[in-house]
Design a protein that fits this description.
410 residues, alpha/beta, 3-stranded mixed β-sheet, 13 helices
Length: 410
């Protein structure tokens, strides 16, 4: 039990340290903006069997008031429902819309990454903006995102939320909204420190020349997060590259909330499953993900232990109290900065109390039943290591050939 308490305190205190960094990051200055920027922009929206949500998303997209050239490329990724007909309707209605229709999975890229890549290949904008087929956009979204591309900025990570202020229709939707808030606050703070780790495919933009300079999606394109977190880390490695976070009201993308607690758990389980594939990820990023998961599992287990063995209750209560205090302090600052006072108070307290159990559930579930992230017909991890082995064999063969030529010439 002593060893368990040591592991518990080490993991939770590490998590608290990360949260303190997040709070400090909230107090750092906002990135510079230049409102006169208006380069050509291409918006890429991948869609797979999205007939229930796509029409509203494209209607929202059509209301963009961008002063420069904009094109909206909707990629129909092997849909079997009415997705193609909805796209055709908007192509006929608005000249800014065009479509790409995929009929086969890629053997090189994961499905969604492949859809985004095909859209990029058919686009012409200097700035590439990507989102999902279940989102809603303020009319100034594109102009607001583009205004952050001052000198040196290669990527803009945009804010995502699942409810607007004062519009949380259910307790589950409110919990999800606070969870999105904490994810965005964390991403924003890390970005302000210059740590180029994470983004959300729902709301991001990057320069085409930087994307090409980085070699596109690269090997990370086989991974399910190859178009967001891994792309962020890839672009962030370019010499002199800056990545900034945009959180002004006009750039906040609304993603539709999950319809039930089970649906929310299943979504988050899929998210956690992709981190089982540790290849390509920055070690510090994976360490922070592991810290969040480990402290949640251990803290949840410690609560059950304290019920069975009351002598451990003081140790758990003190640790939980410190953690709760730091989280509530961060949420207080974050809700005020972002104008989400509706999420402060009871919603924040409920989230902070339930969050360890929520994360512990999805972490354990992700190992029992991993999300089915696949690259065409092949499992991503197996395909990756097969390619690494082929590259190694090729390098070994080339080395032996060079040595043979050198021996022959001597």
């Amino acid at each position: 039990m002593v060893l368990f308490l040591i592991l518990l305190y080490a993991s939770v205190l590490s998590y608290i340290g990360l949260m303190v960094l997040v709070i400090i990051g909230m107090l750092r200055p906002q990135p510079a903006r230049r409102s006169a920027l208006r380069p050509p922009v291409s918006v890429i929206i991948p869609a797979h069997n999205e007939e229930a949500k796509l029409d509203a998303t494209l209607a929202s997209l059509s209301r963009q008031e961008y002063p420069g050239e904009a094109q909206f490329i909707i990629v129909n990724d092997r849909s079997t429902d009415a997705t193609a007909q909805i796209i055709a309707k908007w192509e006929a209605r608005d000249a800014r819309f065009s479509s790409v229709h995929l009929t086969e999975a890629s053997r090189r890229l994961s499905p969604k990454v492949n859809a985004v890549n095909e859209g990029i290949l058919r686009s012409r904008g200097e700035i590439i903006v990507t989102s999902d087929a279940d989102c809603d956009y303020p009319s100034g979204w594109l102009a607001g995102m583009v205004s952050h591309f001052v000198d040196g900025v290669v990527m803009v990570v945009g804010y995502v939320e699942s409810t607007r202020e004062g519009r949380s229709p259910s307790p589950v939707a409110t919990f999800e909204s606070v969870d999105w808030l904490t994810l965005m606050l964390t991403s924003r703070s890390l970005t302000r420190f210059g740590w180029k780790f994470a983004s959300s495919a729902n709301n991001q933009a990057y320069r085409r020349d930087a994307f090409e300079q980085a070699g596109g999606f690269g090997l990370g394109g086989r991974a399910p997060s190859g178009d967001e977190d891994l792309l962020t880390q890839r672009l962030g490695r370019l010499p002199g590259a800056r990545i900034v976070f945009a959180d002004a009201p006009e750039v906040r993308v609304l993603t539709r909330p999950m319809p039930s607690l089970r649906a929310l758990l299943r979504q988050r389980k899929r998210w956690v499953s992709r981190y089982h594939h540790v290849m390509h990820y920055h070690p510090a990023f994976m360490a922070s993900i592991a810290t969040l998961g480990l402290q949640s599992v251990l803290l949840s287990a410690a609560v059950l232990l304290a019920v069975l063995v009351p002598a451990y209750l003081p140790y758990v209560a003190v640790l939980w109290g410190v953690k709760l205090g730091v989280e509530m302090a961060g949420l207080r600052v974050g809700t005020k900065q972002l104008g989400r006072q509706d999420l402060w108070g009871i919603p924040s307290i409920v989230w902070a109390l339930l969050h360890p159990f929520f994360i512990a559930t999805v972490v354990v579930w992700s190992f029992i039943s991993p999300g089915d992230w696949r690259n065409g017909e092949k499992d991503y991890r197996r395909a990756y290591w097969q390619r690494v082995r082929r590259m190694g064999n090729r390098q070994l063969r080339d080395t032996l050939l060079r040595k043979g030529r050198a021996s022959g010439s001597s």
